[in-house]
């Protein structure tokens, strides 16, 4: 089988919600030399997109979404070590402190967890507050741990407005400059991020790490070059 077929096999395993097949196919794909990031983007997330669309049109139901989630998680366990080692090595000095959460009303956490684990692997200290987290709780934690970055995840379009509320609330508290805010999740676009006044977004976990690094250096430069 060629690499394209292996990616297709992963995608199908995710679509069928078959965790055994997802694990097997992800392993084969790694062995054939497909980069872990490509397995994530072109296999797992591509499959999730198809399932999402079928769910939207009423062809699939909640049980299928759940099985798909489980299949993605299972395959992630296989590719995660490679994803991590693909990141330019953890920096000796602390890369930065990130408070991460899925915002209130939303319980999707697979993507957030991947982002968190990639950040940790890259030397960031990550406080993951879990899912369905009120924005006030997120801000309070960021203040408590003196975070560099607040990272918010949301997959539901109905939960995305809470990201805007978080940015607005920081502003109202006179704390907007205290933290960089990065946002993400399947429906989050750069336009959305800009519109709500966040500092950036990334379409996947590897780019989220690059974004976080950029934001921390910006923040340190703004603080007067004190690293
Ligand atoms: C699996 C899944 C579920 C699972 C979630 C399991 C879990 N533990 O997370 C379950 C079954 C629980 C679920 C429930 C629901 N779901 Co759902 N689900 C999905 C599905 C198929 C895949 C999501 C996923 O895990 N993708 C894989 C990960 C790796 O990708 P990701 O999350 O996008 O994360 C990556 C990037 O976005 C980015 N990223 C993520 N977070 C962050 C954060 C930052 C700061 C940055 C920089 C980057 C970043 O990096 C990640 C890694 O590369 C999506 C479809 C889709 N295309 O996303 C629907 C989808 C998100 N679900 C949807 C819906 C409607 C629901 C339900 C409302 C269904 C219902 N009727 O009950 C409930 C909502 C419950 C709630 N209150 O939250 C809709 C949302 C539609 C919309 N426009 O809002 C979608 C889009 C499906 C669809 N097309 O209809 N779901």
Would you kindly provide a written description of the structure presented here, covering whatever features stand out?
- The chain is of the alpha/beta class.
- The protein has nine helices and five strands, in the order ααααβαβαβαβαβα.
- It has helices at 3-16, 19-31, 36-56, 62-85, 110-121, 135-144, 161-172, 190-195, 205-222; strands at residues 96-102, 124-128, 149-153, 180-184, 200-201.
- A five-stranded parallel sheet has the order 2-1-3-4-5, with helices on both faces.
- Strand 4 (180-184), helix 8 and strand 5 (200-201) form a beta-alpha-beta unit.
- It is globular and about 55 Å long.
- The relative contact order is 0.11.
- The mean pLDDT is 94.
- Cobalamin (B12) binds at residues 40, 45, 48-49, 51-53, 55-56, 62, 65-66, 68-69, 72, 105-112, 114-115, 151-153, 155-158, 182-187, 201-205, 208, 211.
């Amino acid at each position: 089988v060629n690499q394209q077929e292996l990616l297709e096999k992963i995608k199908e395993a995710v679509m069928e919600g078959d965790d055994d097949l997802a694990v097997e196919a992800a392993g084969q794909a790694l062995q054939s030399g497909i980069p872990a990031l490509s397995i994530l983007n072109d296999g797992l997330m591509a499959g999730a997109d198809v399932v999402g669309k079928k769910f939207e049109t009423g062809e699939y139901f909640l049980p299928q979404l759940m099985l798909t989630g489980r299949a993605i998680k299972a395959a992630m366990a296989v590719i995660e070590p490679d994803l991590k080692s693909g990141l330019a090595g953890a920096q000796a000095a602390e890369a930065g402190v990130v408070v991460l959460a899925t915002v209130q009303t939303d319980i999707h956490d697979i993507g957030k967890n991947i982002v968190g684990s990639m950040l940790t692997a890259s030397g960031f200290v990550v406080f993951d507050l879990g899912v369905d987290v009120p924005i006030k709780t997120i801000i309070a934690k960021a203040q408590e741990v003196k975070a560099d970055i607040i990272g918010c995840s949301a997959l539901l379009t109905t939960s995305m407005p809470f990201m805007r509320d978080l940015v607005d609330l920081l502003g109202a508290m006179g704390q907007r400059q205290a933290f960089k805010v990065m946002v993400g999740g399947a429906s989050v676009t750069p336009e959305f991020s800009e519109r709500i006044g966040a500092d950036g977004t990334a379409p996947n976990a590897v780019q989220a790490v690059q974004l976080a690094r950029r934001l921390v250096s910006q923040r340190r430069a703004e603080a007067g070059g004190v690293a």
